[in-house]
Amino acid sequence: MKNTLSLVLAVFLLAGTLSACSDEGSAFETKSYTPEGVEINGIDIQVTDREIVVFPSSDGQFHIDYAESAKEFYEISVSDGGILTMVSQSDKEWTDYIGGSTSAGADQITVQIPDVALSTLTLCTTKENISLPALNVTDQLTLSTNGGDISFENISAADSITVENKNGDITGTITGSYDDYAITCTIKKGESSLPDEKGGGSKTLTAINNNGDIDIEFISE
Q1: Number of domains in the chain
Q2: Which pLDDT does position 91 carry in this prediction?
Q3: Residue 203 belongs to what domain range?
Q4: Is residue 193 pLDDT above 60, yes or no?
């Protein structure tokens, strides 16, 4: 009986110690990034477990607001071609996943985009939502998540739009005519407002979903 009690106490002590260790470096700090002195032609955000919310900029500048810690942070850069990139980085060990949780507000990234036509826009995340306002992309627009919803309003792209999801819904409106797009739609365990295949059109729309619905409508300009 004494041996069993000692073992239980040891387990609780070890769990408490590991939990305390996991808290070190986990404090999140709110930050903001604004590219200065460079022209932004596109945005590429590749993150994990973060909601991505895009809305119009009120001052004509690009802004990214986020939170990071010593163990969960981001690499943000602008390429010579003017592509603003944000990529998740992690220095977490296995003990950091014991009893840990994301601090309030740290699970969302907000992106402010001025009224300009980007050449490309790529937003990818996991376990969280992606939402976009009305915007125009002159080349390719790609949205992807796993475990969240994708929603957008009056988006358009001169070349292609790709939306991909798993365990969530895809809902939105595209500016332009239905006949403008060649469509490929793949869906499992859900309903879709799009045909499986449609030819014609100078642009392409690819919609993929597994265990969720696709509800995309076309809005005349």
Answers
A1: 1
A2: 81
A3: 2-219
A4: yes
